[in-house]
């Protein structure tokens, strides 16, 4: 009889566990994406210095941009003489390794050429921004 009682008790316990309804699951909370703040674009700062190189009877880069008050340096990276001419002013002839620096105080575009050769590839522009 003990066996029957134990079997009956075990059946009740098993049925009680199985027959219980599952606990209600919480409904998923909708996720809210965090607000993304995009910073306002800022103006690209222009450099206060630039370097132009003479090589292969050409200047590189052909155009540079600096802020008003900025300086541009031309460097002769080859044996032939080169120079920098802005109309009526500019450098003397520059030997290999020599450099010339000009400071630009007023905004504008300044065309220059090699004062020795004036080949098209040796012409360039300095853009000066306020």
The ordered H/E elements are: HEEEEEEEEE
- Give the amount of beta strand, in percent: 25-35%
CATH class of the domain at 49-129: Mainly Beta
* Number of beta-strand segments: 9
Share of helix, binned: 10-25%
The largest pleated sheet is described as: 4 strands, mixed
Mean of pLDDT = 80
Distance between the termini: 106 Å
- Number of helical segments? 1
State the CATH superfamily name of the domain at 49-129: Cupredoxins -  blue copper proteins
Low-pLDDT ranges: 1-19
* Cα Rg: 40 Å
Strand order of the largest sheet: 2-1-4-7
Using the 3D structure, state the CATH architecture of the domain at 49-129: Sandwich
The global form is elongated
Structural class: alpha/beta
The CATH topology of the domain at 49-129 comes to Immunoglobulin-like
List keywords for this structure.
alpha/beta; elongated; Immunoglobulin-like; 130 residues; 4-stranded mixed beta sheet; 9 strands; 3-stranded mixed beta sheet; disordered N terminus; 1 helix
Layout of secondary structure:
Layout: H1 2-19, E1 49-54, E2 59-60, E3 63-67, E4 70-76, E5 85-86, E6 89-90, E7 99-104, E8 108-113, E9 123-129
Parallel strand pairs: 1-4, 3-9
Antiparallel strand pairs: 1-2, 4-7, 5-6, 8-9
Overview of the molecule:
This protein is α/β, with parallel strands linked by helices. It has a domain at 49-129: Immunoglobulin-like, CATH 2.60.40.420. 14% of the residues lie in helices and 33% in strands. The strands form three sheets. Strands 2-1-4-7 form a four-stranded mixed beta sheet, with no helix packed on it. It has a three-stranded mixed beta sheet with strand order 3-9-8, with no helix packed on it. A two-stranded antiparallel ribbon has the order 5-6. A hairpin with a 4-residue loop joins strand 1 and strand 2 (59-60). It is elongated.
